[in-house]
Design a protein that fits this description.
Strand content: 5-15%
Radius of gyration: 23 Å
Shape: globular
CATH superfamily of the largest domain: Glucose-6-phosphate isomerase like protein, domain 1
Number of strands: 12
Structural class: alpha/beta
Distance between the termini: 50 Å
Mean pLDDT: 94
CATH class of the largest domain: Alpha Beta
């Protein structure tokens, strides 16, 4: 993974390095968290990739539940309980995985929209003939998430009516001793634990993500290796630490009035990664109060753009609108390689666009990326650039871990708690009261 900003930054290098130096003690703290291991620190998610027992437990249960004829894994969760899993699944298998991927396929039930539940039940009705062809993974850290429990009850009741008893086709992932944990043991569901100090938005490398991904055919061993390698890189206190420098860039641009952080992915497979990052940033640094209890109403608004799709809807705003955004371009280094898809030499509609005939689609996309970056420079729109080796497990894991550590550093600079979300309870409380 390559991280670059020096050709596009409008900041003084001395200011970047001075701000970076203010994070030296916190970098040492993160190193201590990893050295001591376990889950006692708020940054405990850093120790997930080294949790051998957890990975063994995930793989053991996965092998027990993955029948020869398994067709569908229903991931019933919301927010941090499914966004990371969906990000990795879509990045590796593509946006059209439900249509073209061999079984088993993963379906995410992440909102109580009746249409979504009706469609899920239609899939079961039309394409599932036995309970062994379906697996329900219910994920809720608190164990009392309204949408998750409602969706599970609806789906389970429908499947039970069709197949009879199917408690052996349910796996519950939650905090140990939560209400859901206790109810699951009573009903003899299989359970997987989310460590207490691992919040939902930092939980993708726990059983939350690893179990359903392993069932779906993702190489989870490669995921944890990639995450661990990135942790090692981001614990180094140096100018080459990408998470450290990225956090500094976002913070300094935020201080200068650029309070919109846009992640611009040049691969549509990464759209769900953008949604995952949106929660990570929104919940981690969008805070009413700082660590000292002062009301500051701080926050950076995360947005996601997909290239080249959103260039035809948002480029005018990005290049001509308010200078309130800092952008990170994310792409894959094709190194001049061919995609295997070329525009024909003989064009059916004639030469409507000059220069495309005979060109590989990678060439066209690379030209678009370079054109965008040149336009950003000319219009003095600051950006950083992140280049992944590929879209395989190791690279995706590195990216996600990099962003999680970036957020820890950013919250430290903003003097806010990266691991709580007290105001989220405001709407949950009101919802429970309305439901009686």
């Amino acid at each position: 993974m390559k991280f670059n900003y020096k050709n596009s930054s409008l900041l003084e290098e001395s200011e970047i390095l001075k701000t970076k130096d203010s994070l030296e003690l916190y970098t040492k703290h993160l190193a201590k968290v990893v050295e001591e291991g376990g889950y006692s620190f708020m940054e405990a998610s850093l120790n997930l990739p080294d949790d051998v027992r957890m990975l063994e437990e995930v793989k053991k249960l996965s092998s027990e539940k993955k029948t020869d004829n398994l067709k569908y894994i229903f991931v019933v969760g919301i927010g941090g309980s499914n966004l990371g899993t969906e990000a990795i699944y879509e990045a590796i298998f593509g946006r059209l995985s439900l249509a073209k991927k061999e079984y088993p396929k993963m379906i995410f039930l992440d909102t109580s929209n009746p249409k979504l539940l009706f469609d899920a039940m239609d899939i079961v009705k039309e394409d599932v003939s036995s309970k062994d062809e379906v697996l329900i993974n219910v994920i809720s850290k608190s164990g009392t998430t309204t949408e998750t429990i409602a969706n599970f009850e609806v789906l389970y009741a429908f499947c039970k009516e069709k197949f009879g008893e199917l408690k052996d086709r349910v796996v519950v992932t939650t905090d140990k001793d939560s209400k859901l944990w206790k109810a699951s043991l009573e009903r003899e569901y299989s359970v997987l634990e989310i460590p207490k100090n691992v919040g939902g938005r930092y939980s993708v490398f726990s059983a939350v993500g690893l179990f359903p991904l392993d069932i779906a055919g993702v190489n989870v061993s490669e995921l944890v290796v990639g995450a661990k390698n990135m942790i090692d890189i981001c614990l180094e206190f140096s100018d080459e630490n990408p998470a450290l420098i990225s956090a500094v860039l976002i913070f300094l641009h935020y201080k200068s009035g650029k309070n919109v952080n846009n992640n611009f992915f040049f691969h549509s497979e990464l759209e769900s990664v953008g949604k995952w990052y949106r929660q990570l940033m929104g919940e981690s640094v969008g805070k009413e109060k700082d660590k000292d209890g002062n009301v500051i109403n701080a926050g950076i608004t995360p947005t996601t753009a997909i290239g080249s799709t959103d260039l035809h809807s948002m480029a005018q705003l990005y290049l001509g609108g308010p200078k309130d955004k800092f952008t990170t371009f994310v792409s894959v280094d094709f190194d001049g390689s061919d995609s295997g898809i070329r525009v024909p030499e003989e064009l059916e509609a004639g030469e409507l666009v000059s220069g495309i005939y005979g060109k590989d689609l990678n060439q066209i996309m690379n030209a678009i990326q370079k054109g965008v970056k040149t336009a950003y420079k000319k219009n003095e729109r600051p950006y950083a650039e992140l280049i992944l080796k590929d879209l395989k497990e190791d690279s995706i894991a590195r990216f996600l871990q990099f962003k999680m550590m970036e957020m820890m550093f950013l919250a430290q600079l903003m003097n806010v708690n990266a691991f709580d979300q007290p105001n989220v309870e405001d709407y949950k409380k009101e919802t429970r009261e309305l439901l009686g």
